[in-house]
């Protein structure tokens, strides 16, 4: 992160690290906490529910939901997370707001035409932004995107630049973009959050199938 900040003439304090702990057990979160990390990303409401009792008491730790949220899980999500970084519809904004607890919100935007990807169509962004801003309990923080996976991090660059332009157009301050393989490019393009799992904790593959 420092190397990319230096290249981009950016203050390293302007980019934060979201430690993505999905699939890993709660002991990994505890270890990362002991090493000084405070912001964590989890993909699944149910997985977070299982980990929550074990990691209760990590003072100052904040958990972000970065995976797709189903609208029937907003109550649990609002209880378990301080931030939802994957909001992608007005319906979800309305439901989350109705849970009555303060939540930081990042809107996930889908900038590719991949079938499997979640995220809001850029055309729907204005109405989602308006819904979050008009809500009582939600605070709009940023935009998030996940470009199509490629070995070549440079392929992510146009997606990151597009997200930056969209955020600027709506005066949205934070940009959550860049994962282990393309975070340096993301920082060069203005990321204020990078979401990193593998580069911190190693491959998730051997853990798949094990209950976290
Ligand atoms: C898993 C995940 C990450 C972390 O990916 P790595 O390649 O392991 O760094 C980041 N963002 C989202 C949305 C994810 O699902």
Question: What does the secondary structure layout of this molecule look like, with pairings?
Answer:
Elements: H1 2-7, E1 16-20, H2 26-34, E2 39-42, H3 45-55, E3 62-65, H4 74-80, E4 83-87, H5 90-98, E5 103-108, H6 125-134, E6 138-144, H7 157-169, E7 174-176, H8 183-188, E8 193-196, H9 198-201
Parallel strand pairs: 1-2, 1-8, 2-3, 3-4, 4-5, 5-6, 6-7
Helix pairs in contact: 2-3, 5-6
This protein binds pyridoxal-5'-phosphate.
CATH overall fold name: TIM Barrel
DSSP strand count: 8
The termini sit apart by 28 Å
- The unreliable regions are none
The CATH class turns out to be Alpha Beta
Tell me the count of domains.
Answer: 1
Mean pLDDT: 95
Q: What is the overall number of helices? A: 9
Which strand-content bin applies to the residues? Answer: 15-25%
DSSP helix fraction: 25-40%
- Give the C-alpha Rg: 16 Å
Choose one word for the global shape. globular
Q: What ions, cofactors and ligands are bound?
A: pyridoxal-5'-phosphate
